[in-house]
Write a structure and sequence with these properties.
single chain; two-stranded parallel sheet; globular
Length: about 170
């Protein structure tokens, strides 16, 4: 990879990280909600996987899907920039998300939610696997199309799994 390409990818990763942090801490009116919160909000024990196929479009469904798909780019950009194995990638990613969730709680700009950590990590995993498999194709167009198709396929499979799993818990 050329130095210029790597610099562009690093810049994209930094900009995307800033955007995600903005939405985690300041998006959706979080600072206004801060004035009404008294005490820490947290959810430690997951009660299901908050993914489902919508019967109607709702803010909650878009928010849940965003928790999955919003973190897919990390699974693509990080292995593009760094030669990293999955176990190291997901460990660093999970620690980072865990830290941000704690920071949301202690600043009263959100809550600590283990379900969010799980869904965000699944999204990053979908990106990582899609990139690694898609990148094995020969032509650049096949790599891009393959990665996009894999992201959509893995997301569909995850939502299907969540629907089935949630019926049995």
């Amino acid at each position: 990879m050329t130095k210029k390409r790597q610099n562009i990818l690093v810049a994209l990763l930094v900009i995307y990280s800033i955007a995600i942090i903005y939405f985690m801490f300041f998006g959706f009116g979080r600072p206004n909600i801060h004035n009404n919160i008294h005490g820490y909000r947290f959810s430690i024990i997951p009660t299901g996987i908050p993914l489902w196929f919508p019967k109607t479009l709702s803010f909650l469904w878009i928010f849940s899907l965003g928790n999955l798909l919003g973190f897919v780019p990390f699974g693509i950009l990080i292995p593009m920039i760094f030669d990293i194995k999955y176990h190291k990638f997901i460990f660093i990613f999970a620690i980072s998300i865990f830290s941000l969730e704690i920071l949301q709680m202690v600043t009263y700009l959100g809550s600590f939610d283990t379900t969010d950590i799980i869904i965000n990590s699944i999204g990053a995993t979908i990106g990582f696997l899609s990139y690694k498999i898609g990148n094995s194709f020969k032509l650049a167009s096949q790599k891009i199309i393959g990665t996009v198709v894999l992201i959509l396929s893995f997301s569909f499979i995850m939502i299907t799994f969540a629907e089935i799993f949630n019926k049995f818990i």
